[in-house]
Amino acid sequence: MQGQILEEERFNVLDKQGKMRKKLKVYSVRYRYTDPETGKRKRTTKRGFLTKADAEAFLLEINNQQNQNMFFTPKAVLVKDFLTEWLKSYVEVNVRETTYNGYKRIIEKHLIPNLGGLDLKKLSSLDIDRLYAFLLKEGRMDGKGGLSPKTVQYTHRVLNEALSYAVKKKLIYVSPMTSISNTPKPKKYRGNIYTANEILQLLEITKDTIYEVPIALASICGLREGECLALQENDIDFNNMTIKITKQLTRVNNIVKVTPPKSEESNRIINAPKEVFDIIQRRIEKNHLNKQLLENEYHDEGWIICYDNGKCINPQYFSKNFANMIARKKLKKIRFHDLRHSCASLMLTSGVAIKTASQILGHSSISITADLYTHVTTDNKRIAAEQVGNTLFKKSDEKIN
Would the pLDDT of 398 be above 60? Predict the structure, then answer.
């Protein structure tokens, strides 16, 4: 067994039964270990064992851990230091800027203030359960109640990913996330969906306004808001009637930036009806006219959806202005993103294969499409079953309810 047990005398200390002794033999364990972070051999001493048997048991456990490659550095690592380093050395170099900012906000506002002072190795599932309960009840920074279950769920995802990283780097043996019981479960948001007639009405109301092109792209082609606002003239192929989607406009730290699409699958080329290209063409012609009128005052960056002076539109402002426009026109309340859901529902109820719909929408997997539009796919399955029954049992003339 590698290591050394040292014996020494201490004065005026409590023994194992809690009695004060003027003089008492105590034991220390000196051992070497390999630092998982640096790979270097180090020596340390664990003091304070009141019996030699306790010291021997500790040394045996240390040896077993090292033999099974399960040893963890004895030095304390605070949760706040670990999260700060993880954010810098892993998150910042592996995720998009918008994702990084979301992680950073969660860590700085919710995780470090509540768990930062704890030793990472001593962080327990009870600590995490208490954190989630606190955040749900009174976690708002302004002191006005709790956070939404969705925000707490996002906090849960960030912490889970961080602690999984800690396990891989052998900073902890088992993640305490495996035994928590307070996992937040937000209700799925189901926004309104516009029917085909409602979409046509909306397009008619917004004809020749700044809203017309993005509404057509979202409700007919399934583009996300940022994808709509990032389209430039060279992304449109009028000859082949295709639209190339390779970027999005995103608000990052109060600055509007061009960033990659949400996922690799979101880089795509889609087709669209001729009517959509007619709408786009009218908007481009209006932009060119504005350029002629404003001359050097026009900011020509090729944006299709832009202000009259050619400048791009802040996605946050666009969402708010869209909502205000819907309210002013006294239309059925709908978020701009719900137009994309309306497009998906129209595609699936029209018989478009779910794989094709998933590719058009730019989802990273078919399962995301199926999960988001369960109600639509369920109806399609029912209709398919009826059609098979009609064919099999010769009920082509009989309608099945």
Answer: no
